[in-house]
Write a structure and sequence with these properties.
Shape: globular
Number of domains: 2
Distance between the termini: 34 Å
CATH superfamily of the largest domain: D-amino Acid Aminotransferase, subunit A, domain 2
CATH class of the largest domain: Alpha Beta
Radius of gyration: 19 Å
Bound molecules: 4'-deoxy-4'-aminopyridoxal-5'-phosphate
Structural class: alpha+beta
Strand content: 25-35%
Order of helices and strands: EEHEEHHEEHEHEEEEHEEEEH
Helix content: 25-40%
Length: about 290
């Protein structure tokens, strides 16, 4: 597969208030964000020219900034407008938007109270391929060795770069073992989430079970799918789930902006058969994000 590097593409990126040519959207190598992970970000999808839940993503970006002890340097409306400018400049109607905010270069040590706060927005094409046959085959997950940390050990509710260190390590390990992603447990041993998506299980009665989001992101897609299921009169239980319970679950799927609803056919030695509930959630989510 030939990769088109993300620093060598045509188009424009919004950087600190203006659109700049894609290849010129640079930050210095001595940036606090790069060395000390003082960077937060959002991943959003655009469907038919409209960002799905754009305002919720902006709200979460602001919360992530505040958790990392800085302020988002623009008002919500300015950010919404800037995202639209980026989509327009790059002629994207179905794609992905990445807004991110990080501490600059004025201070290069642990303390960084006086750094500038940078904000950038990039977007690229990423059509949502809705091929129900491929989708319903499901993906396989290994079980990660790394555990999601306790809220006392990390700012777990921020979408912050530093929290992805163990996700990248876990996903690499899973891929090396032939899986497509990894299921991560939390610091107590409960099932938490995948490396970039939340997880749901379906029991034999057709009830949905999803881990309580008390030490990982309460995903915007997760919340959308919970409402969708409830609107279809499917019971949803948010609770702590032990890994041993996987054996009694019939179906499993992941949710996330990028993953949308992705059925899972295997976690370690447990097999699942993506069936009716997976199909209803995949199709239901698809019709929410692509209204007719
Ligand atoms: N958990 C992690 C670690 C993620 O990276 C994501 C993707 N942002 C999610 C959950 C799902 O969040 P959302 O549905 O808001 O995209």
């Amino acid at each position: 597969m030939s990769l088109v590097p993300f620093d060598d593409r045509d188009g424009e990126i919004w950087l600190n208030g203006e659109l700049v040519p894609w290849r010129s959207a640079k930050t210095h190598t001595l940036s606090h964000g790069l060395h000390y992970a003082s960077l937060v970000f959002e991943g959003e999808r655009v469907y038919g020219g409209k960002i799905f839940k754009g305002k919720e993503h902006t709200k979460r970006l602001r919360i992530s900034c505040n958790i990392l002890d800085f302020d988002l340097p623009v008002m919500d409306e300015q950010l919404e407008l800037a995202k639209q400018k980026v989509l327009h400049a790059n002629k994207i109607t179905d794609g992905y938007v990445r807004a991110f905010c990080w501490r600059g270069s004025e201070m290069m040590a642990v303390s960084a109270q006086k750094t500038s706060i940078n904000l950038a927005i990039a977007a690229w094409e990423w059509p949502s391929y809705f091929d129900p046959v491929t989708k319903m085959a499901g993906i396989s997950l290994g079980i990660a060795d790394w555990k999601r940390p306790s809220p006392e050990s990390a700012p777990v509710h921020a979408k912050a770069a530093g929290l992805y260190m163990i996700c990248t390590l876990s996903k690499h390990r899973a891929e090396q073992q032939g899986f497509q992603d990894a299921l991560m447990l939390d610091y107590r041993g409960y099932v938490a989430e995948a490396t970039g998506a939340n997880v749901f299980f379906v029991d034999k009665k057709g009830t949905l079970h999803t881990p309580t989001a008390d030490c990982f992101l309460n995903g915007i897609t997760r919340q959308t799918v919970i409402s969708l299921a409830k609107s279809m009169e499917i019971e949803v239980v948010e609770r702590h789930i032990m890994p041993q319970e996987l054996a009694s679950m019939k179906e499993c799927f992941l949710t996330g902006t990028a993953a949308e609803v992705t059925p899972v056919s295997r976690i370690g030695d447990h097999e699942f058969v993506p069936s009716e509930i997976c199909r209803q959630m995949v199709e239901g989510y698809s019709s929410i994000v692509n209204p007719a």
